[in-house]
Amino acid sequence: MKVVLQNLTKKFPNRNKKLDDVIAVNDFTFEIPDGQLIGLLGPSGCGKSTTLNLICGLEKPTSGKIYFGEDDVTDLPPENRGVGLVFQNYALYPHLTVRQNILFPLQNLKGKDKLSKAEMLRRADEAAKLVQIEQLMDRKPAEMSGGQQQRVAIARALVKMPRVLLLDEPLSNLDARLRLQTREEIRRIQRNTGITTIFVTHDQEEAMSISDLIVVMKDGIIQQIDKPQRVYDDPKNLFVAKFLGTPPINVFKGRVRGGQLFLGEDAVLAVPGVRDREVWVGIRPEGFVPQKAGPLCCTLKAVEVMGRDTSVVIAHGAAVSDPVRAIISSDYAVTADREELRFALKPNKVFLFDLQTEERIPFTAE
Amino acid sequence: MDKRNAKAWLYLLPAILFLGVFMIYPLVDVVVYSLEENFESVSQSYTGVGLFNFSHVLRDPYFLQALKNTFILVVITVPVSTGIALLISLGLNSIKPLRNLYQTVYFLPYVTNTLAVGLVFMLLFKQDDSSLGLVNLLIRALGGTPVDFINGPYWAKMLVTCLYTVWVVMPFKILILTGALASVPQTYYNAAKVDGTSKGRIFRRITLPMISPMIFYLVITGFIGAFKAYSDEVALFGVDLNQAGMNTIVGYVYDMLYSNGGSYPSYASAAALILFAIVLTITVINLMVSRRTVHY
After folding, report:
1. Best interface-test mutation with B: which of A56, A100, A104 has the largest number of B CBs within 10 A?
2. What is the pLDDT of residues A120-164, one digit of tens each?
């Protein structure tokens, strides 16, 4: 089931009535293709949970339309939309066993949708098998680990065979190891069922690793919608560039003069087709190549050996971000006793942004 | 006893002293009194040791009347007051404007003096030769015959007592239940909404189980409180409750100790122990039931 949002806007009245309304979701228009896994990514307060609540129907939009396939579901209550929602804290009913929790949505069905008891149990077992919790069916939520509770919550959302599955910060309550495991699990379940799935996260790594498409949001406005690798390689603005990637991108203030990019006095890169101006320069940590006579001259502050590569902390007069971090292959022997380090830059890892609008300035790398 | 133990006992001494003097000694004394037959309070003498006091109390018509009154009171007021309090709390929980005002209004009886409330009830329900209370005026206006709820038939007096008790115990229950309802996380309701759960089912399957520990707390304390009823009856019917036929077990104990023809500490002790046995039994049953139905 494809999901289409059309000029979707949600305003909340400000608590202080004299101030303007808070616009949580501002004029969203995008289409989620059938059977894909979509990550809504953004910092806290950017409107991603509100977007999810609008799609599932817990919130009514101020204006705009939501379509599931060809159906306009904008005015439908949540139960008639056919959505499954997994809450951030799972919202498993603590007094019910796992089986009762999973059966709960099925027991709500009325009229022609009503299922026989045997059919309900069969579907509950099926959902449990999908998330691999068959052996836990008689436990209460309090007797399970966070990861197991998470699976139960997913099973409960899946058991009524929703058209769209929504996950609100599905991994944020899990510890680091479980998080890795569970995100694979979510990917697998989504592949197996083929249900269009939308999940919300503020963790860019999480979004990058499992999504088919990432929607990057900030202050209720969509910044970029693209495949994870494309969002990383081709950010539309400074915010997107800064938000994605660990370690984060290094930002410098630079100047373009005669087709050359200057950081301080160092002419570091040829940027053909860019007029003379001041710019923000974003350089990915992996964009630095140590070179004896490289154009970028930095002072070396620390070297952190990580085995496969080496993380070098450097300083440069034009740098805005602190620290500046370069990830270089451990083939280059860099030792901490040097004071200066010179780099060449990989052109496809360097992005220029307008000083005011922070929009990307394209240049053709040689 | 090593030094550390001695120190521990020293720290415990104040508590042990006070509890011993004011709780344990009287408790033991009650048991002793209840077993001393033909106790003479002037000479502090008795003729034998046995269970005569219990059998006397259990055959005393005044005690049986008190027992009956107390049981009726408990059986009616505990479920009724808890049920109504739950309804009111649900109502309070579902409105936003004026919620605080209503909460205050419902809490007022809790901070009002029992005797003052009793006086007001008496004025509302009474029927003198010269005047009718407000309730009787209403009954007459609706075409019924006025009933004297204070000095009249037994059922009328019991009705007023029950109404009064419900009214007095409700504020505390409303307070506890509104708190319990407010502490049920909103996300359970959202989850139920997404799954298309009907309102009745949300109440039965989510709200009620989630607040069940509080309900059972209220039922248990309600039972104990109702079994100990006394001052409410005095407020309504005056001090001679036997004459009014509205005595309670605690009232009987008091009468046996102090009121006209009193100073029968043996009978009072026996009655008190019988009450204790009843309350203990009911509470144990309550706890057993709650263990089975309160889920977490």
Report:
1. A104
2. 999 999 889 888 888 999 999 989 988 889 889 999 998 988 999
**Which SS3 state, helix, strand or coil, does residue B105 take?**
helix
**Which chain B residue lies closest to A78 (C-alpha atoms)?**
B194
Cβ neighbours of A13 in B, within 8 Å: none
Q: Are A325 and A312 in contact (CB under 8 A)?
A: yes
Cβ–Cβ < 8 Å for B80, B162: yes
Nearest to A241 by CA among A352, A357, A339: A352
| Contact partners, residue A9, CB within 8 Å, separation at least 6 | A23, A25, A26, A27, A28, A61, A62, A63, A64
Which residues have a Cβ under 8 Å from the Cβ of B110 and sit 6 or more positions away? B171, B172, B175
Q: Is B249 exposed, middle or buried (0-12, 13-18, 19+ CB in 10 A)?
A: buried
Asked whether the whole model's pTM tops 0.80, one would answer: no
Give A38's strand partners.
Answer: A198, A213
Give the tens place of pLDDT for each residue, B22-72. 999 999 989 988 888 877 766 677 777 888 889 988 998 999 999 999 999
The whole-angstrom separation of Cα B147 and Cα B150 is 9
H or E segment to which residue B203 belongs: none
Among B179, B144, B175, B149, which Cα is nearest to B163's? B149
| Vertex B133 angle, CA B132 and B138, to 5° | 90
Give SS3 for A115: coil
And the tokens for B68? 């009956």
CA distance B57 to B278: 15
From B188, which residue of chain A is nearest by alpha-carbon distance?
A: A91
Count of all residues that appear for chain B in the document = 296
Domain locations in chain A as residue ranges: 3-242, 248-361
Which residue in A176, A231, A223, A233 sits closest to A204, CA to CA?
A: A231
Q: Which of A79, A81, A143, A173 to mutate to test the interface with B (most CBs of B within 10 A)?
A: A79
Partner A contacted by B200 (CB < 8 A)? no
* DSSP β-bridge partners for residue A199: A39, A167
CATH class of the domain at A3-242:
alpha beta
The lowest-confidence range among A210-224, A236-250, B98-112, B263-277 is B98-112
H or E segment and range at residue B19: helix B3-19
Tens-digit pLDDT profile for residues B76-131: 999 999 999 999 999 998 887 888 888 888 888 888 888 888 888 888 888 777 77
Closest CA to B221 of B163, B279, B275, B277: B279
Residues of chain B with C-beta less than 8 angstroms from the C-beta of A54: none
A315 Cβ contact list (under 8 Å, min separation 6): A298, A299, A301, A322, A323, A324
Domains and CATH numbers, chain B: 60-293 (1.10.3720.10)
Residue contacts between A and B (CB atoms, under 8 Å): 61
Six token digits for residue B155? 């059922």
Q: Mapping DSSP to helix (H, G, I), strand (E, B) and coil, where does residue A193 land?
A: helix
Q: Which of A186-190, B37-41, B73-77, B145-149 has the highest mean pLDDT?
A: B73-77
Task: Give me the residue label for tokens 């139920």.
Answer: B192
Q: How many CA atoms lie within 13 A of A257 on its CB side?
A: 9
